[in-house]
Amino acid sequence: MTPTAIQTNKWHVLGTVGIGTFVSALNASMMNLAVPFIGANFQARMPLAEWVIMAYLLAISTLLLVFGRLGDTYGFRKIYLVGTAIFTVGSVLCGFAPSIYYLVAFRILQGLGAAMVMAIGPAILTAAFPPQERGKALGFLGVFVASALAAGPTLGGLLLKYAGWEFIFFINGPLGLLIMVWTWLVLAPTPRSPQRFDLPGAVTLFLALGALLLALSHGEEWGWSSGPIRALLLTAALFFPLFVWRELTCPAPMMELRLFKNRLFSAATTSAVCNFIVQYMVVFMLPFYFKEVLRLDAARAGVLLSSFPLVILVVAPLSGTLSDRIGSRGLSSLGMAASAVSLALLSRLTPESAWPEIVWPLVLLGLGNGIFQSPNSSALMGSVPRTHLGVAGGMLATARNGGMVLGVALAGAVFNHRLPLHLAATGSGTVQAASLAFAAALHDTMLVGAGIALLGMATSLVRGAPAGRPAPRPAPERPRAE
Fold this sequence. Notes:
Elements: H1 10-41, H2 46-49, H3 51-74, H4 76-95, H5 100-128, H6 134-162, H7 166-170, H8 172-186, H9 199-222, H10 227-249, H11 263-292, H12 298-326, H13 329-346, H14 355-382, H15 389-426, H16 431-461
Helix pairs in contact: 1-5, 1-6, 1-8, 3-4, 3-5, 3-9, 3-15, 4-5, 4-8, 5-15, 6-12, 6-14, 9-10, 9-15, 11-14, 11-15, 11-16, 12-14, 13-14, 13-16, 15-16
């Protein structure tokens, strides 16, 4: 038995991982709606309130690869259970937070647990399902994510209205306990590898990724030439080469960099980053368009945005199943092409746009994401040795979260750079002129996103077939039981 084997009913495994993924995604989608209310409750200004989301996202993004490697070393079930427990405890503590500062600290703890769950989930599924059903399994996992994204705003609004913001966190308590019990019953213990964990590599990667993502997410707010941003970028520039040197010279590296010699692995990772950059450029910008230009209330804006995840809900499992039969390259490329067309259509929005002009591009974006994500994830996870499934799952989740941060940062940078130019061209002082300038800046931002989608399509097309996996390092002869 390999160190990553999961010997149990594969559909029960899918249910376990799916429920854990659903709870994590549901919490994130509810938080996007709740942050303004939480900030008002603690009388916190917007820059401070944003850290309720940013602290969680940065904790996840910087630790995913670390926990993926820990899963390969210590066993998937153990890391998944510990992660669920930490996420649950962190959620309850968030609900009892006496100040915004305590809340941010508890969100970091919650993000630590979420990083464990997100990094290990795809690896557990890949180990449980045979290669010819891997796309189907990851497609159904996409259904759990899309369901959470669709239900989150509505459920979050109801909790905010009738219970209070604390219950957005308290609801994770019983759900987390259910997941822990179900995981203990369903997942078989996985053997532990005696291979040492590369702590220096983990620390250098954490510092490098943390500095880079923090700089990218706050560069526009703090100023790209400001002292803190320069210091963060310098830190990233110093620690990334140090991490590479450490991994190339360490006998048991945290991350096997030889995986990137595999064109399928590196190209699928790049395509995933592009996909989530594009997705979050839209998710970040359209709510501002609805509020500032169309003057829609939160309920109507939520209904319009829900068309995007609802389409993914339907398409993702079909695309995953189809990729098991015909391969992933064509489907992934088609999905990115559809996303490019969607953003090109969204770039044509004006202050007079009717709802069909908004909904149909969002439907097309959901179609593109649904077609792309399951086949691309299946290709990435199938391109590595089974002894590195945890690292591959961590890389997949890092591409997703890193793409989210980059998408928001890039959208904000392009929009805020172009808006003053369009305001000068249209004139200022009237609502109509401001709306026209906003639409013009949105046009430029969406076209940049369309270009990134085309880049993701190109990397999908040239990545090659799944053959030629990098040879794994010799596995230990007698792994210890968990």
